[in-house]
Amino acid sequence: MLTSRLLALLDRRSLIAVGLLAAAAVLVPILLLMTPESFPLHMPAYIVALLGKYLCYAILAVALDLVWGYCGILSLGHGAFFALGGYAMGMYLMRQIGERGVYGNPLLPDFMVFLNWDSLPWFWYGFDMFWFALLMVMLAPGLLAFVFGWFAFRSRVTGVYLSIITQALTYALMLAFFRNEMGFGGNNGLTDFKDIIGFNLQEDGTRIALFVATALMLGLGYIACRAIVVSRLGRVAVAIRDAEDRTRFVGYRVEYVKLAIFTFSAVLAGIAGALYVPQVGIINPGEFSPLNSIEIVIWVAVGGRATLYGAAAGAIMVNYGKSYFTAALPEVWLFALGALFVLVTLFLPKGVIGLLNRKRVET
Question: How far apart are CA 313 and CA 346, in angstroms?
């Protein structure tokens, strides 16, 4: 019964995408744990962490594609939701360090001891419990998106004005988190993590578990977004994207539809941030940078807007290119990224996936 419902949600391309993701979740652990280092296909631990980071970005791209591709909301602030989820997980990981920190304080993180704080701030309470951290990973970005969306959508702010406001939101949060008195590590952020739910973050088994969890979350997030897209809510969202005034005239509460999809997308972005932090090992205010949110838009545009799987593919492709060019040609990477966005906008308005679909139709 459940299998038939899942198959009904997924088209052929979606099944291929989910199948490739499942294959990666199986093959990567095998290539790391069950092959010797001399084996040509052996996968080093740092590559596993890098792939896990790419999958986190893919989750984030899918979250943005849901609101931009299907609801017409060009959010330039999704990096804020990603960072909030990351900080919530980072706070849990910092509380797990305990006496193993540089200053050996069992309660206060090292940066608080360095700044001569004498007690733990109230908003850090509860983060010593994993379930509470998971709750905050979803609640913090979800609540921010709900409050922001409630005022923005009820005021009928749309188009470029909404994009500018979302970018101003993430920029304001970046400036706030840079301040030491905020209690989030200031400029240095949160780092030097030791373990997660009792497992050493440097162990290969933990890296594999985080990678598999990220792949599983990408699959679940994709299926959830796909379920929204093919539902009545998704069809109304597409109608809003294409003709908002007409949809409102028919009788739909446009602001409620936007608010629901925007909030869900923010929660998904927060989960991506929470999975990102233990694999990368740091979270700092730079994740709130408006440039990061603009890059997310480029991922979706390159892969293919309003496809979901195209957004995920775009995130992986662009970030692989970023990893390569920042090492080989670091001085030209930003120019290459800008040129890529311009070329895609002019010649591939439907992204790489759209180009592949067009070639398939022609043949």
Answer: 20
Residues 192-206, mean pLDDT to the nearest whole number? 94
**What is the C-alpha to C-alpha distance for residues 143 and 123, in angstroms, rounded to an integer?**
15
Tokens coding 86: 């990351």
Measured in Å, how far apart are the chain's first and last C-alpha atoms? Answer: 37
**In degrees rounded to 5, what are phi and psi of residue 194?**
-110, -55
User: Under 8 Å CB-to-CB from 320, ≥6 apart: which residues?
Assistant: 54
- pLDDT at position 3 over 70: no
Q: What is the 3-state secondary structure (H, E, C) of the chain?
A: CHHHHHHHHCCHHHHHHHHHHHHHHHHHHHHHHCCCCCCCCCCCHHHHHHHHHHHHHHHHHHHHHHHHHCCCCCCCCHHHHHHHHHHHHHHHHHHCCHHHCCCCCCCCCHHHHHCCCCCCCHHHCCCCCHHHHHHHHHHHHHHHHHHHHHHHHHCCCCHHHHHHHHHHHHHHHHHHHCCHHHCCCHHHCEECCCEECCEECCCHHHHHHHHHHHHHHHHHHHHHHHHHHHCHHHHHHHHHHHCHHHHHHHCCCHHHHHHHHHHHHHHHHHHHHHHHHHHHCEECHHHHCHHHHHHHHHHHHHHCCCCCHHHHHHHHHHHHHHHHHHHHCHHHHHHHHHHHHHHHHHHCCCHHHHHHHHHHHHC
Closest Cα partner for 75 from 154, 173, 159, 176? 159
At residue 196, does pLDDT exceed 80? Answer: yes
C-alpha torsion angle, residues 164, 277, 190, 181 (rounded to 10): 30
pLDDT in tens, 92-108: 999 999 899 889 999 99
Domain ranges of the chain: 2-362
In this predicted structure, what is the pLDDT of residue 126?
95
